[in-house]
Amino acid sequence: MPNSVMDNLGLGVFKTCKYLFSFDSIKVELLGLIKDIMVNMTQVPTKNIVMDVAVADIPPRFGMLLSRS
Questions:
Q1: Residue 5: in which H helix or E strand, if any?
Q2: How far apart are CA 56 and CA 20, in angstroms?
Q3: Least enclosed by CB within 10 Å: which of 15, 53, 60, 61?
Q4: What residue ranges of the chain have pLDDT lower than 50?
Q5: 3-class SS at 30?
Q6: pTM surpassing 0.70?
Q7: Cα dihedral sign for 43, 20, 27, 17?
Q8: Going edge to edge, which strands form the sheet with 27-40?
């Protein structure tokens, strides 16, 4: 999740985290993690998922990217 989206939602990071690798194998530095956030899936409105979300200082082009199983 981009830092600007986190700020707009009024959330804050709970746990520090150093980095992760993006889909194209680029190392991305993280600001931290938001623990146990409830996410509602717009394609399936009855589906809610509790997840940890990584926050990075990146452009808010995508809003939030979810991983796949």
A1: helix 3-9
A2: 10
A3: 61
A4: 69
A5: strand
A6: no
A7: positive
A8: 19-21, 27-40, 48-56
